[in-house]
Amino acid sequence: MNSPKLNHEIDFRILGDEMQCVEVELDPQEAAIAEAGSLMYMDDAIEMQTIFGDGGAQNQGILGKFLSAGKRVLTGESLFLTVYTNQGYGKRHVTFAAPFPGKVIPMDLHLLDGQLICQKDAFLCAAKGVSIGIEFQRRIGVGLFGGEGFIMQKLEGDGMAFLHAGGTVVERELLPGQVLRVDTGCLVAFTRGVNYNIEMVRGVRNALFGGEGLFLATLQGPGRVWLQSLPFSRLADRIVASAPKMGGKRRGEGSILGGMGDWIGGNNRF
Description:
The chain has a single domain, classed as Double-stranded beta-helix, CATH 3.60.160.10. Helices cover 17% and strands 40% of the residues. It contains five helices and 19 strands. It is globular and about 60 Å long.
């Protein structure tokens, strides 16, 4: 006989293709939790409440709340989460949007042995009762060179949680002993039982000129792994590289087309 779920049970649908958001359907008195700034829109009768801590059981003492808030600070997140509760009599909807282009990944923690390890900025929202804690990487090499530092987020509970990843999401099922090597920034999440480590890229030329950095993440099964094709750090690097240079100079400004573009746009001074 299955034990009753402790977290709120919510229905949802994913909207969009490349710029996705998740619409959560709440029955009366059902609630969802989300990171600050992720709200897109909500129906009437949805009440917002800011809570202090990690979103788990809210009947813990003041010391427990401070400890859970401190864990969130270590992961680089805000001290607070926002709870959205349906205070009406019928079904209501609240929608959360991802911060950059990519996919929203629904995760049923009940089917994932109650726990999921993910990168620090991957969490978007979840059913109320899901705890957003931390997972320390015990190996010094992983902490220094693994791309996510010593600390990753740990989601615990038996409800739905939603992650966000950049670009296209790839899910891999690893058999016992099977190893997958991944660019450190492309790792989104993995289940309990997956052994996470890092290794140095083999070959001096590969390390210096391969363009993939000095280290790769190694994931050893059994378990499930989620990967992203466009880490936000990679996207940010491209944006910075394409930004106007100092003094207002832009890439390609010295070319014929660049000069014509400035003339057409009225940027030339006589």
